[in-house]
Amino acid sequence: MEKRSILFVCLGNICRSPVAEGVFRKKAQEANILDRLIVDSAGTAAWHVGKSPDERMMAAADMRGYDLSSLRARQATADDFEKFDHILAMDTDNLYSLQDISPETGKADLRLFLNYAPNRKESDVPDPYYGKVEGFNHVIDLVEEASEGLLAKIKKELSEQNISS
Ligand code: 4NP
Q1: Alpha carbon nearest to ligand 1 atom 12, residue
Q2: Using a 6 Å cutoff on CB, does residue 47 contact ligand 1?
Q3: Interval between CA 140 and ligand 1 midpoint (Å)
Q4: pLDDT tens string for the chain (165 positions)?
Q5: Which residues pair with 110 in a beta bridge?
Q6: Nearest-angstrom CA–CA distance, 74 and 77
Q7: How many other C-beta atoms can be found within 10 angstroms of the C-beta atom of residue 156?
Q8: CATH of domain 4-164
Q9: Which three-class secondary structure state does DSSP give residue 75?
Q10: Where are the domains of the chain?
């Protein structure tokens, strides 16, 4: 069974992309497609490699039913463009950083995650790191909405795969 692979990327891989990974995994599990997916997250910076998600994000996520405790930060690499079908950047700065390391041969479809939340006027999931607790909840609101859009796209890809195989 061929799998679809999805990578969420922010700056530190301790706030936005881990919660995107956790939210998307849960929605994929509820849709009964998680066994057909590879879901991961990474940061464009290496500052927090090996660390758990930020405590404030873990607490905000936990309140809404997402357990991020098993996740550990890693840095995005050029290899990720060969391994993943979809790479979702949390904001425009990180999109540019990813474009900088993207190899010519990569298969990944690289885009802003909020492209999958077309009803939102903003294009970036804002960095909550230096802000207040409300900022973490706002990140989760945006991530939940974009995850629904991405899930619809992935379900379509999986059903097209079934027809062609
Ligand atoms: P993230 O948030 O990119 O959503 O993981 C940040 C985490 C750490 C830092 C900045 C943003 N930092 O400056 O250490």
Answers
A1: 12
A2: yes
A3: 15
A4: 789 999 999 999 999 999 999 999 999 999 999 999 999 999 999 999 999 999 999 999 999 999 999 999 999 999 999 999 999 999 999 999 999 999 999 899 999 999 999 999 999 999 999 999 999 999 999 999 999 999 999 999 999 987 665
A5: 87
A6: 9
A7: 10
A8: 3.40.50.2300
A9: strand
A10: 4-164
Measured between alpha carbons, how far is 49 from 66 in angstroms, rounded to an integer? 21
How far CA 149 is from CA of 105, 117, 156, in Å, comes to: 27, 6, 11
pTM over 0.85: yes
- Cα–Cα distance for residue pair 12/51, rounded to 1 Å: 10
Residue type, 89: A
Which residue among 129, 136, 140 is best mutated to probe the pocket of ligand 1, counting the most ligand atoms within 8 A of its Cβ?
Answer: 129
Residues in the chain: 165
* Nearest protein Cα to ligand 1, atom 7: 12
CB contact at 8 A, 90 and 8: yes
